[in-house]
Design a protein that fits this description.
Elements lengths: L7 E5 L2 H12 L2 E2 L11 E5 L6 E6 L12 E3 L6 H11 L2 E5 L11 E4 L5 E4 L3 H7 L1
Parallel strand pairs: 1-4, 5-8
Antiparallel strand pairs: 2-3, 3-4, 6-7, 7-8
Length: 132
């Protein structure tokens, strides 16, 4: 048996607001011909390069524990620390800082989006290449 991931779903209290928050973080866009609008209970965005899609669905439940599944983000152009600063200005909150966990220049930072969904910011490919 084989399957593929059609999209990744993220629960939200405000699907539109959260999809709008994530679009600039990831460089994603609305699905062509199906724009997300305030009040929509389901909002899909996609990566214009890879086609990966994120679906934000409104749910009444509160987030109460650590995510069992999360996104690991790698900066496309900036360094991890530069991207971290951009994410903090954009409204992300630091959950745990694991920079240097395996020596200087290593590690990641766990963050939360405005609704508390955790994600990590990793080192950029260029940083990884420079450290090997």
């Amino acid at each position: 048996m084989t399957t593929f991931i059609a999209h990744t779903t993220i629960d939200a209290h405000d699907a539109y607001a959260l999809s709008e928050w994530w679009k600039p973080v990831l460089g994603y866009v609305d699905i062509e011909g199906d724009p997300n609008l305030p009040g929509h209970e389901e909002c899909m965005i996609r990566d214009p390069e890879t086609g990966h899609q994120l679906l934000f669905i409104e749910v009444p439940d509160e987030k109460v524990v650590k995510n069992r599944l999360h996104l690991d983000l790698r900066p496309r152009a900036a360094t991890r620390d530069e991207e971290l600063e951009t994410l903090l200005v954009h409204g992300a909150k630091v959950v745990a800082d694991h920079r240097g966990i395996h020596g200087p220049g290593s590690g990641w930072v766990t963050l939360a989006d405005p609704e508390g969904n955790e994600f990590c910011i990793l080192r950029a490919d260029a940083e990884l290449a420079a450290s090997s």
